[in-house]
Amino acid sequence: MSAFETLSVRVEDRVATITISSPPMNLIGGRMLPELDEATDALASDPDVMVVILKSSTPGFFIGHAKFGDIAQLTNDVVPETLETTPRGVVHVVTERLRIMDKLTIAQVEGRATGGGAALALACDLRYGALGKAVFNSFGVSLATGLGGGASQYLPRVVGVSRALELILGAYDLDAETADRWGYLTRAFPAETIDENVRAIATRIASYSPEVIRQTRRLVASALDGTIEEGLRDEAFVFQQFVGTDDAVHGISRLLQLGGETIEGESNLGELLGQIELKRTDATHEQA
């Protein structure tokens, strides 16, 4: 990856953190979108990265909407005449990469996420918001431009069609407390602890077997695309591939060492499972 102006990338313990820094509001424009494209493309092809966190260092803002002066970046030179001749939007390229890459993607939202910024958060697998700080707004209808980030497709899948219509057509702000109740957020954390909580979740997940993470993420993400019978058959296939591997033997042995299959251990299973990880050595590197 080349040097960036609007973001930095840090990789540690198989967790990559993209931190947006384009004050005062992290509006999409200038170098931000090309740099997000380059950074996510590089991380998507990095086999050592298992989790990608998207966050901001700009107080009060996650990622904003497109700069109106740079909106030409998001449009074609010629207005398409048919649906078939319409290419994906440039924001869609990044959001879809976040949605389909074989990593777990996390949006850590500690400020306003509007327009394309809200769509980037929605495209991630997990979304965590800071109470009292995270606010979401998928507008466009109110400006008579329509939507260009992907909210029309992502938001109904997250909160349902009815709530998505209210938020999009009404252009309402959605605070973290309500977003948590509606399922827009995976979870809301106090602002003072969100960073350590998200880091702990990402590090725990990234410590497990990489290929099992990839395949299980795929199973869950595609669960609603087919029938339950097809999904169960796929799950059984994946289970049969992994259950006899060295990683599985290590995982089961480690759990038994920690107290698995005892009353005390099974009563604290979640805590014990957090102590199981592969033996590995990871380098830490940062790209500014």
TrEMBL record:
PROSITE patterns attached here? ENOYL_COA_HYDRATASE
The molecular function terms of the Gene Ontology recorded here are:
catalytic activity
Check the record and name the InterPro entries matching this protein. Answer: ClpP/crotonase-like_dom_sf, Enoyl-CoA_hyd/isom_CS, Enoyl-CoA_hydra/iso
| Pfam families registered for this protein in UniProt | ECH_1
Superkingdom of the source species:
Bacteria
Family membership noted in the UniProt record: Belongs to the enoyl-CoA hydratase/isomerase family.
- Family matches, as PANTHER family: EG:BACN32G11.4 PROTEIN (PTHR43459:SF1), ENOYL-COA HYDRATASE (PTHR43459)
Return the protein name: Enoyl-CoA hydratase/carnithine racemase
High-level lineage: Bacteria, Bacillati, Actinomycetota, Actinomycetes, Micrococcales
